Amino acid sequence: MHDSVKPDPIRSPALEKLARQGLRHGFFTRAGGVSDGIYRGLNAGVGSQDARENVNENRARIAAFLGVAPQNLLSLYQIHSPDALVVREPFDGERPKADALVTDRPGLALGVLTADCGPVLYADAEAGVIGAAHAGWKGALTGVLESTIEAMEKLGARRERIIAVLGPSIGPDNYEVGPEFVDRFATASAANGDYFRPSPKPGHALFDLNRYTLDRLSQAGVTAHGIDRCTYAEEESFFSYRRATHRGEGDYGRQISAIVLEDR
């Protein structure tokens, strides 16, 4: 059954304050889409096995909310890398492989797709520069958050003016990891032990990706905020790769988080 409800994304108060400066954003949920089955709702995942016409309709609804044409809602072929791209026009053909995008051009909506990883939206409203990053554990660990800031600076942003907001992602109560995962973080920095606590499963730990991400952003010199919502726990609102995996569902939908400088 097609959902007649319009998309109603979560908005960050910190970014919403910039609306009068021509900035729109949204951390979109499952609400307002036409997909069904395991993709029920507003699945924006081009890489999912959902019917392409449903994904296209969902993305058209998201674009309409943001005030852009569907082809101006940009998202990447995400590969859990630290790579950030500067974009100044819609993609022609294949989506580039990277995990963050930045622009200073009005009318281009920058989107990142997630299903447990952290979506981060950035804005320096004074400079008119925005960014969006897909930050799972690997991207966050290897520097995608900082790469996005550096790419924004090349377009005239200043990190002390940048607001960065982490959207809904998997919470620490549901992110269980094995010893090799903990070791990788400990090798990178002894201080990373603070982001883990023992899990009920012997030899395993619960990882606080949210706090790790927010701390990396703050240490990089931007003003960081978080939307404290867990994608795994809130099935009605969010898609979750881990929840789908635990259920043996074979595939999963993706929600999109996006930001745009409005055409004036």
List the helices and strands and how they pair.
Layout: H1 13-16, E1 23-27, H2 52-66, E2 73-74, E3 84-86, E4 100-103, E5 109-114, E6 118-124, E7 129-135, H3 137-142, H4 144-154, E8 163-166, E9 176-177, H5 179-188, E10 196-198, E11 205-207, H6 209-219, E12 223-226, H7 241-246, E13 255-261
Parallel strand pairs: 2-5, 3-4, 8-12
Antiparallel strand pairs: 1-13, 4-7, 5-13, 6-7, 6-8, 9-11, 10-11
How would you describe this structure to a colleague?
There is one protein chain. Helix content is 24%, strand content 22%. It is built from seven helices and 13 strands. Strands 3-4-7-6-8-12 form a six-stranded mixed β-sheet. Strands 1-13-5-2 form a four-stranded mixed β-sheet. The chain has a three-stranded antiparallel β-sheet with strand order 9-11-10. The longest helix is centred in the N-terminal third of the chain and has 15 residues, at 52-66. The N and C termini lie far apart (37 Å). The mean pLDDT is 96.
